[in-house]
Structure to design on (596 residues):
């Protein structure tokens, strides 16, 4: 047993001893400061939902009737049929990027199971219900497989949950994971390998092919419709630079972006444009910029800063016309509000409430018609992509969620 | 008066109730901020920012029972904000001395604590934040991800990567290695 093995077993206790907790000497000053700060007014229900259309909430069921039983039975049959359909679709696959048809919505539950869920009813159907703790499902672009986390190891299964097998053991350190367009491979980061921080993982065999890159890598993604990777490299503690490299590591080329770039970028479905967030030295700090990956022309998407909004975490819509993201106002107040922004003119439509839980998880449906917003407090909401028809969904996705892409009719 | 009642009163503008709540949580959140930021001044800035934000926005908290988690998220968020403002200024190592009768401690426990302290110091601040939020504040990785504003997958990989860097640092140090750099992760 190594020293680390010994320490890891008692990590919570040791770190508890390191973090000696005592009331700090600035406590009284801090309370003076809060006492001098005005509280925000409690918003009315209407104010919380400005710009929203119909809010559909599940109707409470007061008693179980034969109608309910019949409906549940029908839904169960439908869910089973859907599952069978999902599992049987092997001939027709969706394009790897861009708009696709919505397949199964799969979530990791608080109990450590992976299930399909009907967003309308919350009815779940088990995909994986092993006695282990599973989570973090992530569908391949062709919708035929998904990977998931099982006790630190990376596993892969068919879309219907069958054929689950370990892909990468828990002893192998893998950072980020992105499927190849055809689902036969993935590109992963290897944080412990300085010379080869990137590798191509063969999904069938589990073997890896190292890719050399001479910078500290944060994330790597397959560039849509190109035989290239887009690499996010670390610049200091927080900033990022973005690179294009061949899938064999050849011809690395830095994309000219703002020095204040942070986090990882989002790629347009055609692979032509990269959008990213910055953290500027002055308010408003978080802004959104875009650049042609081959053509350059780095420019601000958020051109009007007069509202003081700080924008973060953009994600391209499946049709490449909009960004799904969230914003704060001002940066020091971590009340997040989700929005959809036009990539061309930066105009934005806010969705849902100002939420006291910072940094919600955001996701477009494969067809681009709806968005899912999952807040840290467990609330999960769905909106139409025009910002209307917000409704709270009757389930919690504590262990992550992924939406299967299916072939268009 | 229970915690929920205190939160509800504070939401209604009762600052004494808020002060009572702050007293319940400030010590551990201050310690967490110091573990992440390794600097008393920065930790004070982050904790104050978090608590002022909490007081200001408390009326918008919909579920009073979620106050503690919400407050932890605000302070964690403030730590990251402080890091971003700080830019690349060198980390100043400054932790409080550990309380307790060290002399009577079992030697290996003291040694392990020192090894852990060294390993944490060698992590990058954002890696340290994941470790502290997860192991010290007891937040799940999805909660940690949300607090830090990163995807759950990134939190998991950062957690994995942090442990790997700590393993390298601890195993090197425990062998009395002279190399101060653990896999290029020296903060």
């Amino acid at each position: 047993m190594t020293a680390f093995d010994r320490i890891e077993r008692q990590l919570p206790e040791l770190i508890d001893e390191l973090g000696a907790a005592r009331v700090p000497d600035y406590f009284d000053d801090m309370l003076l400061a809060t006492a001098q700060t005005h509280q925000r007014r409690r918003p009315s229900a209407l104010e919380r939902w400005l710009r929203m259309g119909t809010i559909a909430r599940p109707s409470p069921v007061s008693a179980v009737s034969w109608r309910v039983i019949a409906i549940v039975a029908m839904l169960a049959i439908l869910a089973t049929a859907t599952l069978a359909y999902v599992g049987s679709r092997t001939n027709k696959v969706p394009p790897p990027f861009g708009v696709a048809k919505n397949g199964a919505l799969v979530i990791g539950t608080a109990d450590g199971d992976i299930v399909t869920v009907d967003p309308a009813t919350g009815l779940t159907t088990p995909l994986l219900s092993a006695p282990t703790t599973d989570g973090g499902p992530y569908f391949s672009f062709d919708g035929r497989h998904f990977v998931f986390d099982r006790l630190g190891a990376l596993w892969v299964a068919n879309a219907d949950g069958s054929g689950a097998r370990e892909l990468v053991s828990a002893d192998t350190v893998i950072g980020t994971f992105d499927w190849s367009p055809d689902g036969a491979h993935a590109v992963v980061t290897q944080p412990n390998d300085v010379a080869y921080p990137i590798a191509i993982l063969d999904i069938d065999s589990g073997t890896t092919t190292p890719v050399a890159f001479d910078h500290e890598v944060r994330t790597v993604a397959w560039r849509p419709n190109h035989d290239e990777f887009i690499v996010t490299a670390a610049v200091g503690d927080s900033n990022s630079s973005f690179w294009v490299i061949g899938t064999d590591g050849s011809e690395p080329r830095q994309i000219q972006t703002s020095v204040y770039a942070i986090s990882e970028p989002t790629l347009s479905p055609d692979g032509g444009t990269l959008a990213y967030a910055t953290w500027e030295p002055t308010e408003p700090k978080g802004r959104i910029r875009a650049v042609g990956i081959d053509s350059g022309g780095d420019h601000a998407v958020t051109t009007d800063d007069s509202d003081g909004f700080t924008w973060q975490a953009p994600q391209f819509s499946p049709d490449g016309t909009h960004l799904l993201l969230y914003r704060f106002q001002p940066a020091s107040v971590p009340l997040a509000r989700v929005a959809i922004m036009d990539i061309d003119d930066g105009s934005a439509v806010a969705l849902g409430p100002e939420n006291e839980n910072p940094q919600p998880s955001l996701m477009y449906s494969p067809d681009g018609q709806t968005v899912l917003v999952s807040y840290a407090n467990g609330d999960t909401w769905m909106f139409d992509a025009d910002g209307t028809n917000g409704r709270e969904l009757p389930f919690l996705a504590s262990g992550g969620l992924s939406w299967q892409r299916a072939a268009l009719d | 008066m229970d915690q929920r009642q205190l939160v509800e009163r504070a939401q209604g503008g009762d600052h004494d109730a808020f002060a009572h709540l702050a007293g319940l949580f400030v010590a551990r959140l201050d310690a967490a901020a110091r573990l992440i930021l390794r600097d008393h001044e920065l930790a004070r800035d982050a904790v104050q920012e978090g608590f002022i934000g909490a007081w200001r926005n408390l009326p918008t908290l919909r579920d009073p029972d979620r106050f503690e988690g919400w407050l932890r998220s605000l302070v964690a968020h403030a730590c990251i904000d402080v890091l971003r403002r700080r830019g690349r200024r060198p980390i100043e190592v400054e932790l409080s001395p550990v309380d307790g009768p060290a002399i009577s401690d079992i030697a290996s426990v003291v040694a392990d604590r020192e090894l852990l302290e060294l390993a944490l110091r060698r992590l990058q601040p954002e890696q340290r934040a994941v470790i502290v939020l997860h192991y010290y504040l007891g937040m799940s990785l999805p909660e940690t991800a949300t607090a830090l504003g990163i995807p759950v997958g990134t939190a998991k990989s950062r957690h994995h990567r942090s442990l790997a860097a700590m393993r390298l640092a601890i195993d090197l140090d425990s062998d009395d290695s002279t190399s101060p750099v653990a896999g290029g992760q020296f903060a």
User: Anything to note?
Assistant: Helices of chain A lie at 3-9, 11-18, 27-35, 45-48, 66-88.
